[in-house]
Amino acid sequence: MIRLEHISKRFEAGKQTVDAIKDVSLCIEKGTIAGIIGFSGAGKSTLARCINLLERPTEGKVVVGDAELTALNEKQLREKRKKIGMIFQHFNLFASRTVYGNVAYPLRGSGRSRKEIEEKVRSLLDLVGLTDKANAYPSQLSGGQKQRVAIARALANDPEVLLSDEATSALDPETTRSILRLLKEVNRTLGITIVVITHEMQVVKEICHQVYVMEDGRVVEQGDVFQIFASPQQAITRRFVDSASNLSHIQELLDDPARPIKLNPGDYLLRLNYLKRSTSEALISTLSRHFELDINILFGNIELIDGNPLGGLVVIAGGGHDKVTAATGYLSQRNVLVEVISHG
Amino acid sequence: MADLLNLIIPDVAARSDQLWRAFWETLQMVSISGVISLVLGIPFGVLLFTTRRGGILQNRPVNFILSRICDFFRSIPFILLAMVLLSLSRLVVGTAIGVRGAIIPLVFGTIPFLGRQVEGALAEVPAGLIEAAQAMGSSPWEIIRRVYLKEAVPGITRGVTITLVSLINFTAIAGTLGAGGLGNFAIMYGHSKNMPQITWTVILIIVILVSIVQAAGSYIAKKAAH
Fold this sequence. Notes:
The complex is a heterodimer.
Chain A: E1 2-13, E2 16-28, E3 33-37, H1 44-51, E4 59-64, E5 67-68, H2 74-81, E6 84-88, H3 99-104, H4 114-128, H5 143-154, E7 161-165, H6 173-190, E8 193-198, H7 201-207, E9 210-215, E10 218-224, H8 225-230, H9 235-243, H10 249-255, E11 267-274, H11 283-290, E12 294-305, E13 308-318, H12 321-333, E14 336-343
Parallel strand pairs in A: 3-8, 3-9, 6-7, 7-8
Antiparallel strand pairs in A: 1-2, 1-4, 4-5, 9-10, 11-13, 11-14, 12-13
Chain B: H1 2-8, H2 10-13, H3 16-50, H4 60-75, H5 78-93, H6 98-123, H7 127-135, H8 140-151, H9 153-179, H10 181-191, H11 196-224
Helix pairs in contact in B: 3-6, 3-9, 3-10, 4-6, 5-6, 5-9, 6-9, 7-8, 9-10, 9-11, 10-11
């Protein structure tokens, strides 16, 4: 659906050149929600803007649907852009137009009659739940409502693709969730391919099927969301995954000068990551019964990622080196990744 | 009323016909050159802004030439510009005096001023809106018409207001060069014949005129801002 082939983007300002994107290739299937995650400056927004050529890549090919965008002339490109909706961090609504006027903007001048436009706008406002705000101006709306208007506007021309550039970054967590739910619904009911640019792993966790991790202009890791969360390979990916899980709090406790965690000799501080559908087994009871370990659970975090349960525990296992080693072996067979964080 | 005026400003009351004519001439000069300046000055400002580096019609040579022309006319004091342009006026409209003779100098003095005002107003439209419009497939022309000129209405209205005020000022100067109007009237009697009543009456009328323009402009700008 979306294919980027060897995309590079270089910005030149005077004598300074910045390589914002370095040889990125990726392929996003029709109907999926793909996340592009990275810290600020990683090039993720630039990459998204290359998809509709708001930013023309210095090198490489952009293919959306059956058209190679990089080969189109200006007029053809404008037509194609009508099929690629985009929403932004700061909403970018027209302040001088009402909610109705904003959503109608892309529909005017497209040969539709007044009545057709009105019907379309009404149905879009209905979809985003803002029917009663049609005559309000953007300045009268909350952030979440503004983003809903922006989504309605982006969907006006029945796009095949929706680009979401940090669309929830200016919103509070509750509003973020409601916007993400709306995007998910749009994806499911309209079958629109969505590309989500974000710096929050929470966003990826909630709606994405696929994820691309960007660092310094490159895609350093990619895969389906479950796989990325279950076994992140790169250090940066691990940081993102940790940021979305409370298991990472263990590090803060260990670094705490008050030393709230005390390990006795023979105690092992373990982090268990459940990889594949292992959460339903009574693993902890088995460990304590069969391997005679004393297990103290410090943190637990089990979540549904893309429909699959995933998560882990941070535990203190007491019983000495040999018993713990035997238990670790057992856990590995059961698809649980064991990491020894520290021992007494 | 007439008696009262006769009592406090006899010099003015004795010349009320001429005052009315001067007032009428000023209104004519302001409205005719105002309309011409709006029609030409707003597109001029749009071009000044959109051909800038990074603008939607980016064109460095065109922008350079327009900017230099604009700065050239803006840097000449209006009284000198008017003097120089009177011969052009004679060529184009057949006369260098009266309301007709004044239109060309006034228009040349006003368009560059308005152009810069419009340019500034467009610069206040958030770049994100232009991006959003581009992402929706709008052409540069659509963006100018449906985004810039709509979003910048409050700013443009403020610019037009300032321009009209300075245009009223220009007509008074043009009056000294034979254009007629209130400026001419004040110079002829107030200054040359030393009748301060005339001068002050003209000043009062111009202050009221400017206040009305300013109030109307502020009202429209406020109405247009949401």
